[in-house]
Automatic annotation (TrEMBL):
Gene3D superfamilies: 3.30.420.380. This is Type II secretion system protein L. InterPro entries: ATPase_NBD (IPR043129), Extracell_DNA_Util/SecSys_Comp (IPR052534), PilN (IPR007813). It comes from the Bacteria. PANTHER family: DNA UTILIZATION PROTEIN HOFN (PTHR40278:SF1). It comes from Rhodanobacter panaciterrae. Residues 248-282 form a coiled coil.
């Protein structure tokens, strides 16, 4: 055992004892048993705990060994205490034992020697909580006070009990058997080539759950399956990490794709908004132009109105209309002053007045005038801006 393992051993023992003292092992055992009971009989063995315990018991009266499976009353094999019934050799494993355990995997095979309750000393103890970390050593030092024997005369084990105890203490049970009782049985098994994993106490068809053998005498079995299970567990963890990583990668890829689609849709939406705004602007401009055209008096109507209102003796040298709706008349007439009366009732030309003085023209004998007026627009208030007018002249 390495130095690192030795330094971690007390911590591991403390964790193991804490786990065993908690209610979780019992609950998980009960739950697993209930689940296994729901399976067919042929499948239940596949979901076992791994260790398959078989129990050995010795009868002093018949000098015979009996093997049965833990929890079952019917014997699987029995043989004489002295020789193998098949080979006659007392130093080889009995054939009956090998035949009974042939179907059990060697890695899972566990043998426990059961001692009758009559030869075993069981004593309840109330110990302080500080003794939990070194329970076996503490009880070993107290052996001569708790039993008629000292530690060198017995094989012993200590187990914690789940019964309530006083504050700062816990209940435990000391299980001990004298070496004079157990050593002859161990010697007989050794002579027959039978190796056991534990020495326990018989409780009906089951075992108490302790091991009276000292840690030095307990065989240490290699467990290649445990290494395989650890490797498989590591592989499962690695696969889980890879699956989670792949899932995260896929989610990020999907999120990136969705973000790209959202950006594309946002760009298209912005284009649609721009097109809608452009359409509204164009529609507004078209409406504005149509409204302005509707509210603006055409040049042809002005010319027609001026032609109809002015007398035939008057003729125009210049006719102009600016953007503000101001009309300019420049020309000659026989009686220029009567032109205001002619334009007075016009529905298109209003506010007519002379600009400057009326002067006679010696060449034509007519009066030269310059008259200004305004275009009458009754619906101009409905337009958004003043209606533009084109300028022109008529001779």
């Amino acid at each position: 055992m390495s130095t690192a393992t030795q330094s971690l051993q007390p911590l591991m023992d403390r964790v193991r004892r804490g786990w065993r003292a908690s209610p979780l092992p019992g609950f998980l055992g009960w739950w697993g048993g209930e689940l296994r009971n729901l399976l067919p009989l042929r499948w239940r063995g596949w979901f076992g705990s791994g260790a398959d315990w078989h129990l050995l018991q010795h009868s002093e009266v018949a000098a015979q060994w009996t093997l049965r499976r833990c929890g079952y009353a019917e014997p699987l094999a029995s043989w004489d205490d002295s020789v193998d019934v098949a080979t006659g050799d007392a130093h080889l494993p009995p054939a009956a034992l090998d035949a009974a355990l042939r179907h059990v995997d060697r890695e899972d095979r566990r043998l426990a020697l059961l001692m009758p309750g009559a030869v075993v000393l069981r004593r309840p103890l109330a110990l302080p909580l500080a003794a939990r970390d070194n329970l076996r050593q503490v009880v070993g030092f107290e052996m001569d006070r708790q039993t008629p024997f000292n530690m060198a005369q017995v094989y012993y084990a200590v187990r914690e009990l789940g019964t309530p105890a006083a504050a700062g203490r816990f209940n435990a049970e000391l299980v001990a058997v004298t070496r004079g009782t157990l050593d002859p049985l161990l010697a007989r098994l050794h002579a027959q080539g039978v190796s056991i994993d534990a020495v326990d106490v018989a409780v009906a068809n089951d075992r108490l759950g302790v091991n009276l053998l000292s840690p030095e005498q307990t065989p240490h079995r290699a467990r290649p399956r445990r290494r395989l299970n650890l490797a498989l567990a590591g592989a499962c963890v690695l696969l889980l990490v890879l699956v989670l990583s792949a899932w995260l990668h896929n989610r990020e890829a999907a999120l990136s794709q969705m973000q790209a689609e959202v950006d594309s849709m946002r760009s298209e939406a912005q284009q649609v908004v721009a097109l809608r705004q452009q359409l509204q602007d164009n529609a507004g401009a078209a409406g504005f132009l149509a409204q302005r055209k509707k509210n603006t008096v055409s040049m042809l109507s002005l010319l027609q109105e001026a032609t109809a209102r002015l007398p035939d003796s008057a003729w125009l040298e210049r006719f102009s209309v600016d953007n503000t709706g101001q009309i300019g008349f420049q020309g000659q007439s026989q009686q220029a002053t009567k032109l205001l009366d002619a334009l007075k009732d016009s529905t298109l030309i209003t506010d007519a007045s002379f600009q400057g003085s009326i002067q006679p023209d010696p060449t034509t004998g007519k009066e030269r005038f310059y008259l200004t007026a305004r275009v009458h627009q009754p619906t101009a208030g409905k337009a958004k801006s003043p209606a533009p007018a084109s300028s022109g002249s008529a001779p």
